[in-house]
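Friendly challenge for the regulars: who can give me the structure tokens for this chain first? No prize, just bragging rights.
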Amino acid sequence: MTQSEQKYNVLVIDDDRFVGETIMDALRGEKLSVFQVMTAADGLHPTVTKRAELILLDLGLPDEDGFVVLQQLKSDPATTSIPVIVLTAWNSLEDKVKGFSLGASDYITKPFEIAELRARVKATLRAKHLQDELNQTIKALDESRRAAEEAVRAKSEFLANMSHEIRTPMNGVIAMTGLLLETPLNGEQEELVETIRTSGDTLLTIINDILDFSKIESGHLELENHPYDVRQAVDDTLDLFSTNAFSKGLEVACLMELNAPTAILGDVTRFRQILANLISNAIKFTRQGEVVVELGARCCEDGTPGLHVRVRDTGIGIPEDKLHRLFKSFSQVDASTTRQYGGTGLGLAISQQLVKLMGGSMWVESEAGRGSVFHCVIPAHEAELEPEPTPAAVGDLKGRSILVVDDNLTNRRVVELAGQKWGMKVEAVAGGEEALQRLAKGAAYDALILDFQMPHMDGIMLAQELQRLKISTPRLLMTSLGLRSDMPVADRNLFNLCLSKPVKPAQFQQALLKILNDSQTAAAEVEPTPESQLPLATRLPLHVLVADDNSINQKVALRLLEQVGYRADVANNGLEVLQALANKPYDLVFMDVQMPEMDGLEASRQVRCLETEAGRFLNSGRHVIIAMTANAMKGDREKCLEAGMDDYIPKPVRAEVLYSTIERWGRQIREERPVVNTKESPVPETVRRNETPPASATKLLDLDRLNDFSEGNREAAQELVDLYLQQTRDQMARLKAQHASGSANEVQRTAHSCAGASATCGILAMTPLFKRVEHLAAEGALDRVAPLINELDTNFKVVQGALKDYLAALPAS
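First reply, four minutes later:
Bragging rights claimed.
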């Protein structure tokens, strides 16, 4: 039946018979059948609603508030798809907002124009007709897609499920052998157990490779897209392999060209995975020499700017006729049973597929016996990161001169590039003899950078000779091994500082500042500017509103804000936010997403709509809304921004992230419009944080998180602990009742709230269990929740003891 042929039934719920007759007359001739009931009870009766394709609802009903009727209609799966037009004499903005928030399709006030009523009814029914057709099309397409994908899913999921099933017992094997190694064993037993552990690690690596490969092949692997620091990602990955490399006597370094992108958008976890595969292979196939990661700029194949990563080694190399085997799945250069180097042959295949998913390319240059260079170019979409605090004395490096003594050309180049970037004069030599010759000719330097392991004259020998010659230039030792515990004290005293390779630029910069500047000008002791000594609220006076339905989250947010001088107000849901903004000007609104009655997303949309109405809010400017939510999955940030929010802070909220966000937006607010002086009181004095927390607490509690809230103040900590224990005790009782009644939705909602509160308070022993309950409830798997509830009970008792120990260890307020 076409839309022009279809006849719709319109239900009028109104106790005024005259209104019903008027509507019937108004809609006569529109191929509509209008029928009326006089009470809410009749309007909600299934036999009545079953006939309706559209409902016109009065709010002033004799037996029930119309809002309650609307809420029941929209919460019942049988009637939720029926459009409801509120038709009432209630004309306040608050009523309109509430009506739309409960799901009304339209809102018409009495007395109404007949032509307007007819037009709105027709428009609503037209939208419903199109939606019905769309739903049918979607259902048909979904069924077709489901049938077409069934065979592919069965194949790919079998491999993925088997990998998971194997990985679970493998983790047990590795963990138990690790514990066994900590017990008293004789030499032979220790060797056997260590072999089991190493074999388990190897097998787990293979399983993980197979799982990643199956995800890529089945199209289930999704990449994240967040800003990250390229150099930091490389340094973190090199740290994982530096011990293995140095045990083989290999030099490991990162060389970053001046034109290389520093911060890009992408999936940092998968970027590290690519690096790890390339670096581990380079170390595996290199007996002597070096493994270097070089970063530069190079356009991708489509011409967009890219990050060029080169992993260069001095290893065995690859014959030209075997290069084609490198990136094939389950393939190796040497596939014989007598090969020297093991592995699945999946690492490079996975890396190349990941690079392709990122929109880049990967290739290799190699020659047998002369090493290899693996290249990958990935798109370098520019990103902005929070600026790292720069030492106030960094200007002291400009114009200073240093001499680098290292037999490795790459290491010398790394130091040269870093020094030149800071405006230093850098000279480099390959050995101690050449350094002594320059010094003997009168060359003067502000600092000497010495490598430990050098042929003929190592760093210790060179430093001893410098001391004998009474050359007192500050000396910095760079070594792969650190200062050994068995090194004589006299040798230790030859150096001002020691850095472990691979040297990170930030560490190198700090070390130079420390040895070049005296105690009055060292970076750690530079006096801050007078403004930076002031509390944040004094520098940026702002009115702040916190919207969250969880009392613990409210308490934590208020406490963190109090520590920098703000006295914030609280709203428990989106409706209260709208009311608060109507009554008082707020500059910053920290908005939770999941709240009852009206969530944070809808509240933000309503705020943006209401801001367009002149004079609606006392503060007529645009409010800055910042999401503060535990929803931290892919796409959650984008949803918040699309709803009209300005920024996003994931829970659990870290103090430094909160304060930097206030600093950034507070300055913008101050520049764009005058801010009403909040006259906040100074930051309250707090007792120094406890430096030696009880050992029992460290594995159960995130002490940094607790101290962020209390700053070591026992009274503040006691308040948070009491609130957490009482709320969690009540919510766990509710969770058990909801589980017993089989209400998966209620279990999910309560577990989500508990997980958020536990994460906010840093309760490590409870948070993952609550999250697991939430996920199982979302899947409808309540039969798997019972054991977790028992485990929560056990852990909660242990947590109570740990919190008691934590409070006892804090100094008295």
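The two ends are 77 Å apart (CA to CA). The chain is about 45% helix and 15% strand. Your move, everyone else.
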